[in-house]
Amino acid sequence: MTGTAPLLLMRGIHKRFPGVQALQDVDLEVEPGEVHVLLGENGAGKSTLMKVLCGQYVPDAGSITFAGQLISPESPLEAENQGLIMIHQELNLIPGLTVAENIFLGHEPSRGGLIRDQVMREVSTELLQRVQCRVDPDTPVSALSVAEQQLVEIARALRERARLLVMDEPTAALADSEIENLFGVIRDLCRNGVPVIYISHRMREIFSIGSRVTVMRDGRTVGTRALADTDVGELIRLMVGRTIDEHIKKREVEIGVEILEVENLGRRGDLAPTSLSICSGEILGVAGLMGSGRTELARAIFGADPVDSGTVRVCGRELPGNDPAASIAAGLGFLTEDRKQQGLVLQLSVADNITLTSLDEFSRHGVLDLVAERERAGDLVETLHIRVASSDQEVGDLSGGNQQKVILARWLAARCKVLLFDEPTRGIDVGAKAEIYDLIGELVEQGVAVLLISSEMPELLGLSDRIAVMHDGAIQRILPRTEATQERIMELALQFTA
Q1: What does 363-426 look like in DSSP terms, one character per residue?
Q2: Phi-psi bin for 427: left (phi > 0), alpha (psi -120 to 50), beta?
Q3: Fewest 10 Å CB contacts: which of 10, 209, 308, 333?
């Protein structure tokens, strides 16, 4: 890419929110046809910078030059008219509409006041072929997989004549084969002159798909590198300003008595009758490919989904089933895979979200002690290093990593005996991951029993005392730490061996 004039120049970008300097003197250059990675810890300012570029925020200072012209988009529509389109981590499709209707939403072709459905279908079919998406344009979006929805978003961007595409954590919910397909689409876009700004924390992906990388820290840009000329260690040092040992250090904890007992828990079509137990101070990892039943197991244990058979006991007490409130009262906590849809009330404050499951502790005779509630929330914000202007800030305004820490704080506030973690570090940067690993270590030292679902093999192998491997809704085997290797886990997950 050397010698190519930049397509995008962002210079001296500043953005301040009440109590927070989100961006300070940020620079970014993107060349035609490149995949430019934007890297940084959660809260570093990546998403804020992209929202400035795509018209969701107006900068307080600085300039944006695109294709040789100074621009200042004041709305996403203005940015789209310039060809600047952002695909968010939480996809913005309407489930009840068809694929074609989503691709043309707000731009439906018409004649004589009537929408030309056939034109929409024909153009949508062509666009879907360009992005290697083999779905019927008349299919409701609700029937598509996450990977297919991702490709529909890209097809819509092409219909809008995207000249630069921003992708925020596009592979967070994709399987390996789906990621490779997406990378093929991205490379085709770049060959056709459409550069991609790619936000991700997955180092292997970054080096596979990226051309250059710009690193942000604390709302500033700290460096741009050609990915061919750098390595993971240098990028981590730029991100966090310090060296992080990538090896996960497991705390040696004495395993205590059995706290969680699951016996023949099953749900037709999703979960075969399953039995397991976890003791105090123990981490039971759960491995498996997407669709293997890992999340279904956690939801069934917590009572979030009804079951057809089996029992769950916490400290010998049988839970009624299909009753999350009873599970919480018994000391069972569940950090869900989808933090925004299932884990948080985005319109409530950080403090309200933290104390949501422990309000009884702060109420007397039906009256909530707001001072005590805020003190407890403030202590946890400080303990978990949650980056907020104050605990009264709306949780929806936080970065993804800080939102995840708010959910962790909630279960700490509830003083749970058993914690079910479903992908606790998904979409979390390396610095925040290290903090969460330390937190999990502290919890088991305190005698908490942990069930840890993760798609990251180093995480499972580094933290778990035992690993249950799932395939097709059933636990194939529970491996002790001494027998758990990446190869053995994958054999069981793929059923290469019995």
Answers
A1: EETTEE-HHHHHHHHHHHHHHTT---S-TTSBGGGS-HHHHHHHHHHHHHHTT-SEEEEESTTT
A2: left
A3: 308
Report the predicted TM-score, pTM, of the whole model to 2 decimal places.
0.60
Written as one letter, the residue type at 181 is N
Q: Say how far residue 235 (Cα) sits from the centre of its chain.
A: 21
Single-letter code of the amino acid located at 161: R
- CA distance to 96, 160, 213, 310, per residue, from 184 (Å): 29, 20, 19, 45
- Give the model confidence (pLDDT) of 203-249 as tens digits: 888 999 999 999 998 899 999 999 999 988 888 788 877 555 555 77
- Asked if 401 and 43 touch (Cβ cutoff 8 Å), the reply is yes
Positions of the chain with pLDDT under 70 = 1-4, 19, 42, 242-247, 338, 340-341, 427, 495-498
Chain-centroid distance of CA 84 in Å reads 23
| Angle, vertex CA 380, rays to CA 377 and CA 381, nearest 5 | 85
Q: How far apart are the first and last CA of the chain?
A: 49
Whether 391 contacts 378, CB under 8 Å: yes
DSSP string, 118-162: HHHHHHHHHHHHHTT----TTSBGGGS-HHHHHHHHHHHHHHTT-
pLDDT digits (tens, 9 = 90+) for 17-28: 876 789 999 999
Nearest CA-CA partner of 166 in 74, 283, 82: 82
Three-class SS state of 450: strand
The alpha carbon of residue 363 and the mean position of all alpha carbons in its chain are separated, in whole angstroms, by: 34
